[in-house]
Amino acid sequence: MDYHQLLRDSLTRLPTVAATIDSIRKAIQDRGEVVILYFNFDRYSKVEEVYGWEKLDSVLETTGEAMREYLSKSPLASSRLMVAFPNDDDFVFFHVPQDDTPAATDAEITELTAGLKDAVSSEIERVHGEDIAALFDIFVGRALVVYNPKLRLERQIYRGIREAANASKSLEHREQAKKVSDLRETLRDRGLYIEYHPIVITDSQKVFGYEALARGTMRSMRSPEVMFEIAAQSDLIWDLSRLCRERAIEGMGKLLKDGELLFMNVDPADFADPSFDVNALNVKDPTKVVIEITERTAIKDYPKFRGRLKEFRDKGYRFAVDDAGSGYAGLGSIANLEPDFIKLDMSLINCIDQNFIKQNLVETMVRFANEHGAMVIAEGVERKEEYEMVKSLGVHLVQGFFVHKPSTSGVTYRPPMHPARALADGAK
Amino acid sequence: MADTSHPPILVVDDNPDNAHIIRDYLEARGFPITVAYNGDDALKAFEEVKPSLVLLDVMMPGRDGWQVCRDIKSHPTLGRNVRVVMVTALDDWVNKRQALQTGADDFVEKPFELSRLAATVERNVKLLVPNAPSGASTSAPSR
Predict the structure, then answer these.
(1) Which terminus of chain B has a smaller tally of CB atoms within 10 A, N or C?
(2) Contact B93/A at CB under 8 A
(3) CATH number at residue A323
(4) What CA–CA distance (Å, rounded) separates A215 from A416?
(5) Neighbours of B7 (CB within 10 A)
């Protein structure tokens, strides 16, 4: 590979660390110090896991652009030097202060971070939608490297980068602890509302049903992925799932018209929860409820799991396999669950109009579903081209911003506020 | 500039007979063709010729087709403007998933019929648009 091509990251078009050190060597030696900022983007790996690498690439492009734009207007602009690790999702920023100015202080960095976070997050929301923006979090670590002529500059800089990276990690851990307490508060106050995303019949675009998505009323709990991630780390999955189920079921009465179904996410781990009982769910008509089980979570004990599924099935509940085709398990594991619906993994839908392998996979899944009497749902359909493609491949049902703009949905269930919470909010 | 309906194509196959059959057939259809016989040469040729399309055999000694595909797609300057067609029988779900993960755009079964190969080339050439939407499959894999 050409040496010069290695010096710039193709996605963000930012120079790489190796390229930058050479160009700021003299400035650091003259000034005698450099401030290194490490931007740690939390949950970008989640974006990749859920939406596929194409989506993360595209989010990184947006991120790089938004950061450059924001930093070019910041007080550090005159000394900024942004770098990226090629194809990775973290960024480094070198700040060599001008002759007559002091190095940026911690307070200035904190302020910069807050502004940057807002700027990048709103740009991501504008370009990629709320769900991805809600996953976004950034932690900035700082390290000051005082130049020592006895040591190799490169080594000093790489040590500084590690130090700044560690600082950003400890910020992340602190933030994590705060999120756990936010989640506990959410559970205590039952601070959840439900957004119902329509699932439509591909040909007619008529509503077939709704998927219930729980969102926390607290800003930090806006993303269901974040809530469940925190819940998993703090052993609160069952409690959170219980609350989500109750809320989703509470709202369905008013929402569902004749024949429409409610799609409700259930983690395989929930089946081990003694309170997740077929008779304990407050559902009047189980034939209107489809339980979605993700293919992402490993099911440890198949026979037992299938036994639990049968209890629900016998009452009239139906099942969907969520994120189907995300793993390498193939179609066998899907067949094992005998689903009524197969929800294709979003990474298969993203840009499907331009990738013939994805088209081939979806075609295979549709054939498989037709043979097994199931219906295929394409989730994450955002563009007309994607819609037209899945339609031509025979996909039965469609979900995504193309058929449901978040701003116009208006199908939200906001339960009455918890008295304690209402009091607290009223007092503000 | 180059004829956009006949962009340059790189053919990679360790079997010269196969490579030459493909080359002769596509050249007769007006495509400028470069041939490489192993993974390392393929990457060199890729940087020199800057092809819009790569037909890539999978089973090669040394750097195999998957690795070459990954390298091509994560190339910092050229990776976003190239489509890669794997020349292999991706017969099951798992193989196809793996192919997606390397960044491949299409595949054509081997042993191939030439007419099928031509159709595959044509449908990929059609998608070579200068302003692909962001997040398009022509971008580089991140790992």
Answers:
(1) N
(2) yes
(3) 3.20.20.450
(4) 15
(5) 20
Give the residues of chain A that fall short of pLDDT 50. Answer: 1, 407-410, 419-428
User: What integer pLDDT is reported at residue B130 of this predicted model?
Assistant: 57
Query: Which CATH code, of 3.40.50.2300, 3.40.50.10740, 3.30.460.10, 3.30.1360.120, is assigned to B9-114?
Result: 3.40.50.2300
Q: Give per-residue pLDDT as tens, A96-122.
A: 877 777 777 778 878 888 888 889 889
Paired with A377 in beta bridges are A343, A397
pLDDT digit string, tens, across residues A174-185:
989 999 999 999
- Do A171 and A313 share a domain, yes or no? no
Residues of A with Cβ-Cβ distance to B135 under 8 angstroms: 54-55, 57-58, 350-351
Q: A interface mutation test: which of B85, B93, B120, B124 has the most A CBs within 10 A? A: B93
From the list A184, A271, A172, A273, the residue with the least C-alpha distance to A234 is A184
Distance CA A372, CA A151 (A): 68
Q: Is residue A241 part of a domain?
A: yes
Q: What pLDDT shows up at residue B36? A: 96
Size of interface A-B (CB pairs under 8 A): 104
A148-163: b or e for each residue (b if 16 or more CB lie within 10 Å)?
A: eeeeebeebbeebbeb
- The CATH number linked to A98 is 3.30.70.270
Q: Is B44 in the A-facing interface, judged by CB distances under 8 Å? A: no
Angle (CA) B104-B130-B96 rounded to 5° is 10
Q: Is the peptide bond before A224 cis (omega within 30 degrees of 0)?
A: no
Q: Do both A64 and A99 map to the same domain?
A: yes
Which chain B residue lies closest to A12 (C-alpha atoms)? B76
Region B111-136: mean pLDDT is 77
Contacts of A86 in chain B (CB under 8 A): 76
Among the ranges given (A228-242, A293-307, B6-20, B39-53), the one the predictor scored with the smallest mean pLDDT: A293-307
Q: Which structural domain, as residue segments, surrounds residue A234?
A: 190-427
ipTM for the predicted complex comes to 0.87
Cα separation, A135 vs A189, whole angstroms:
23
Nearest CA-CA distance, residue A157 and chain B, Å = 24
Task: List chain A residues with CB under 8 Å of B92.
Answer: 330
